[in-house]
Amino acid sequence: MSLLRGRRAVVTGAGDIGSVVAQRLHEHGAAVEVWDSSQASLARVEAGGMDVRLVDVTDRDAVEAAAEDAAAAAPVNVLANTAAVARFGSLAELDPDDWQETLDVNLTGVYFCCRAFATLMAAGGGGSIVNISSIGGLRGEADFAAYCASKFGVIGLTQSLAREVGASGIRVNTVCPGAVESQMNTDTMARDARRYGTTVEDVERRILTRTALGRLVQPADVADAVVFLASDLSSCITGESLAVTGGIF
Ligand SMILES: NC(=O)c1ccc[n+]([C@@H]2O[C@H](COP(=O)([O-])OP(=O)(O)OC[C@H]3O[C@@H](n4cnc5c(N)ncnc54)[C@H](O)[C@@H]3O)[C@@H](O)[C@H]2O)c1
What we know:
The protein is an alpha/beta fold.
């Protein structure tokens, strides 16, 4: 359990997946600081021996100040961007403010964090950035245009950035989770049940029959992929998207 001994990590988002990502990085030896704009979310990880900081990732000045502060004592080597929102609605129904918020948090927030830490990591000798996209970043879905657009954007940002910062010893990769047992997935399945006039149980059954392993993804499955990409086990991997879906087809 020492894959990340001596490393310092910042994780944005302390939700159902982000909190487990932070915990797993910590278990593998990293000193972890978790950022979230919600005190309630931060409370989930506070007891686990990790530092927490109230940061809105859409606030560029706040992100830059927090990043400099986090790296002041010693270089930050790992950044995992998990903070996100999910807003549903058809093109006509979705409030344009929800479209904007989705892009602000899920894409611009990731960009601000990458921008702040890439500069600091370059000065500190390198590092690994892991951005959480989604299966929705690999293929579009009805009533989910804003989310999918933001998650496709994360993959484009990741590939471009990887080519820019590789020479500074920084790797940048994406993890694309499928249907993860979480509140976000429960909300998504409820949305699908309403759309298709069926039950949540039926939606889940349909997902599982299209999944090779026949089960939902667990937050720990995503966290283990993040640990792999954060560690030296993946030292020659950059600009890639790793799907953690249980083999969805
Ligand atoms: N849950 C799933 O089924 C699923 C599937 C595919 C991809 N993902 C992705 O995995 C990641 C983690 O998902 P999750 O299930 O933990 O989500 P979640 O909703 O449980 O947690 C998201 C966290 O981000 C925080 N956040 C929102 N806006 C913020 C802002 N402006 N600044 C800082 N923090 C902010 C929220 O407070 C929350 O704690 C997300 O990027 C999500 O899109 C999730």
